[in-house]
Amino acid sequence: MADCRIDKSSLSNHASFVYKHLNLSLSVDFERHVLEGVATWTVDVAEHRVAELVLDTSSELEVRSVTVCGAPAPHTMRPAHAAFGVACAITLPEGLGEQGRALEVAVTYATSPKSSALQWLPPAQTAGKERPFMFSQCQAIHARSMLPCPDGPAAKFTYDATVRVPEWATALMSAVAVGSPVASVVGGVPLRTFTFEQTCPLSSYLLALAVGDVRGINVGSRTTVWAEPSVVEAAAWEFAEAERFVAKAEELTQTPYAWGRYDILCMPPSFPYGGMENPCLTFATPTLLAGDRSLANVICHEVAHSWTGNLVTNLTWEHFWLNEGWTRWLETSTLAHLEPAERCDAFFDFQVQQALTHLADDVATFGPTNPLTRLIPPLDGIDPDDSFSAVPYEKGLSLLCHLSAIVGGRPIFEQFAAHYIGTFKRRTLTSADFRECFLKWCEGREIDASSVDWDAWFKTPGMPPVTPVLDPSLGATCTVLADRWMAELAADDLSLDASAAEYKGWPSQLRIFFWETLLARALEGKGAPLALRALEKMDRLYELSASKNAEVRLRWQRICILSRAEFIIPQVLGFVTEQGRMKFVRPLYRALYGWEAQRELAVQTFLEHRSNYHPIAAKMLAQDLKVAEM
């Protein structure tokens, strides 16, 4: 399991080739909702006498023609797989499949309006309401519906691209823009062509394209924040600390930032994730625009991916924790080191406390014996999207905290982290490769790491086999207040003398931890209803109905649903229909569905707003609500 190098999510034969470079030429058609273009792959044959090159595609993509080294080549579209799409097998001409041979394979193709990687938004679903918007989301295995490719993390390549768009639009990619856009007129239609170059190798899931009416504001020497004009100033202010995160991560990893630019695109509300770490262009949800930079930790997480994930990458999706667990560690370490020195350790431990609470919630949702809660989950025949949870993030972070204790503390483990990134940068690896690297590093420093039970960490479902010892001081006041409220909520006792000033005096992260703790207490009650009068009192005291903090809203609304508080229903419906971030919409829809009296309302709301959600989110919500996929 730990050393499995087979990519179970790809139909390509990428191991038979070394993928060097992609030249991509695209035309964006907003009227037909399609991309048309040519993907030209430069590869070296890695095995002896290879007869064909097989690329991942999907039933949502049309391959029109193929050339190999400039000559037409036959291709076969194999039967579709329910989870993994369609394999496009390209026959190599006689003599071109010899080991070491360099090939240029050009595929002319077009996507369809149903491409799972692409969302086409009409003007009404944008902030400006005047122009349409299109963006891609390729993680985990959706790049194959955007272009024919080796759609697995193991194949890393550089790329350059030209993108032709309407003259009113700006194109952005996970690459550095080269020069100014070139104007042209085709068939009487004014267009602009943008050119991009990515010189650092990346995997297909990090290919990204966004096209819309956006403008940028520079907030640092290597950072521009992009967004629709009506949002861009708020986004630029909210994300202005990005450079601090990049600089501190460089210091911690002892590895310079490799990607040139660190730009951020504030996405339309339907974007399904908090952020996506596309190199040179992080996509960020507008749910981060809290107005006080309190949710900027998501940007720090995406910054950290520039090293852990983008530069050092999991070989397959079964080893996804190597991306996300490490990124949670680097994010948490970066934020901790930006705190005053006397708060650094306590802040780190506080972040891990939150992580364990989040992990427990997701483990309970999946079930503690579900194999998908293993750190290395078995993904045979499973779409990686279906396994997505807090497990690779927070269980992975827990393992790294355990290893930190093994080596003698975080300062020493930070030395290993720098060694790890220096060893594997621009490469991919398995969990076994990581384990070997760690043990050899420990051996060279005469550190005894024999007590680590790797099988228990990698193979056992549920919560981590070892719970880290943490300093609870930073979150102690939150825990105490949560327990006091829980007693009142459970006993229908309105005698609690709680002050709004105490809660409002906390920074956002403490407020979120308070709600996380209260939600965990409510879930421990296995659905026992909390007192409606006490919930209403809490709402008035803390002005929760007026809160703009999405993290607070999520937890507060889940607590109310658990207690069958009907006054929360309009707020929940408003929240799940104004944005499409899966972290928020999935647990809220599931909670409503679990309330028998609201089940029909949950399904009806989803069906009415289905087209507003990204295809990935719509698929997952349909599964949650047991609605047939369209």
Automatic annotation (TrEMBL):
InterPro entries xref list: Aminopeptidase_N-like_N, Aminopeptidase_N-like_N_sf, ARM-type_fold, LTA4H_cat, M1_LTA-4_hydro/amino_C_sf, M1_LTA4H, Peptidase_M1, Peptidase_M1_C
GO biological-process terms attached to the record: proteolysis
Domain Peptidase M1 leukotriene A4 hydrolase/aminopeptidase C-terminal: 473-625
Binding, Zn(2+): H301, H305, E324
Pfam family membership, one: Peptidase_M1
Cofactor requirement: Zn(2+)
GO terms for MF: metallopeptidase activity; zinc ion binding
Active site (record annotation): E302 (proton acceptor), Y393 (proton donor)
Family per record: Belongs to the peptidase M1 family.
Protein name as it appears in the record: Leukotriene a4 hydrolase
Organism: Chrysochromulina tobinii
Lineage of origin: Eukaryota, Haptista, Haptophyta, Prymnesiophyceae, Prymnesiales
